[in-house]
Every structure is written in structure tokens, then in C-alpha cells.
Design goal:
Number of strands: 5
Structural class: alpha/beta
Low-confidence stretches: none
CATH architecture: 3-Layer(aba) Sandwich
CATH topology: Glutaredoxin
Radius of gyration: 13 Å
Strand order of the largest sheet: 1-3-2-4-5
CATH class: Alpha Beta
Oligomer: single chain
Amino acid sequence: MYPEYLVAPMREDLTKVGFEELKDADAVKSAIESEGTVFVMVNSVCGCAAANARPAAKLAAQSAKHPDKLVTVFAGMEKDAVDTARNYMLPYPPSSPSMALFKDGKLVHIIERHQIEGRPAQMIADNLIGAFEQYC
């Protein structure tokens, strides 16, 4: 686990734009299994989360069509919440950062770390917006 003072600004980067932070397994289950669409951002302390993933998630969340819920879990912090979210993302391997879109509890779109590293935030956001337009 990382010191809270270190991750607090990284958490706030998403929560200040409307993402709900989920800190336990029950909260993750409740969010993902709800009706409608849920966008899950697995946040991370890594550079690609700061430079690419969080900016992309924030851009996509501002699109005209967007998920009913925007939620986030933090890798390296709330282990049960992150493990639960990752179980819903199977068969994809654990990845942080990563982003997943669920519709009525079913995974319909995922972006893994290897699709985030080295790509501009706008390119990732465009991918997400396409998924939002298709499923939301």
C-alpha cells in the first residue's frame, strides 16, 4: 500500500470530476451489478495513469453520451475493491491502470495498460467515447 498523502491528489483528480471512489468489495459489486452502464477506472500511481489514463477518462466522461455511473478503484490501496473489480473484468489479466465499461453487469469494453502506455490521452478518450456511444 502507498501512503494516503501520496495517492490523495491522484484520487481527487477523478473524484473532483464526478467519479465515485469505491473502497470495498460490496461497493464494487453494487455498482457493477446495477442496471445501466458503469465505467470503472482502475487508478494507479504510475506515470501512464497520470499522463494518459486519468486525462482520457476525464475527457471521455465529458462526452454527450456517457455511462450512468463513473466509478474508480485504486490499485495498490483498497485490495478487496480492486480484486473484485478485476474479477468482473475476467478473462482479461489484472492491469493498472485500466478502464472497463459494463452494461447491466456485463463487461462490454475494456482498455488495458498496454493500450494506454505511449498513447495520447485524446486517442484513448476517443476509444472510450466510441464505446459510450455504442453502449450508453
